[in-house]
Amino acid sequence: QVQLVESGGGLVQTGDSLRLSCAPSGRTFSTHTIGWFRQAPGKEREFVAAVDWSRSMTYYADFAKGRFTFSRDSAAKMEYLQMNTLKPEDTAIYYCAAGRKNTPYVIHESQDYDYWGQGTQVTVSS
Question: Is residue 59 within 8 Å of residue 75, measured between CB atoms?
């Protein structure tokens, strides 16, 4: 089993930045991909970004390209999603997920992920 704990959400204004954190623990060696998804009120959960560190590959949703960036602190075993130039439409609960599938591409469908965190709320005011 893998446990994921997100943090770093909050209330910010349009144009501000936030850095979300994801702390994986447990059998993390069994996973290949870390992904972020989000769900706004009344909407379906949607893919934000994902990274396969073993292949140094990333995949971003169109709305995230140029604004969101992955990073990690291997010593601290933390995964980060830096979000810049936030917009009101970025308001959602953000979930960290981990996938065990070993594929030549970065998985970005929610059904391909095996473990999920509880989410962290991001609210962007206009």
Answer: no
The amino acid present at 107, given as its one-letter code, is: I
Q: How many CB atoms lie within 10 A of CB 49?
A: 22
Distance between CA 8 and CA 58 in Å, rounded?
Answer: 21
pLDDT of the chain, 126 residues: tens digit per residue = 999 999 999 999 999 999 999 999 988 888 889 999 999 999 999 999 999 988 889 999 999 999 999 989 988 889 999 999 999 999 999 999 999 988 888 999 999 999 999 999 999 999
Strand 10-13 and strand 120-125: the pairing is: parallel
Bridge partners, residue 40, by sequence: none
The encoded tokens of residue 42 equal: 């009344």
User: What is the distance between the alpha carbons of residues 126 and 59, in angstroms, rounded to a whole number?
Assistant: 28
Q: Where are the beta strands (DSSP E) in 1-126?
A: 2-7, 10-13, 18-26, 33-39, 46-52, 57-60, 68-73, 78-83, 92-99, 115-116, 120-125
User: What is the CA 86 to chain-centroid distance, rounded?
Assistant: 15
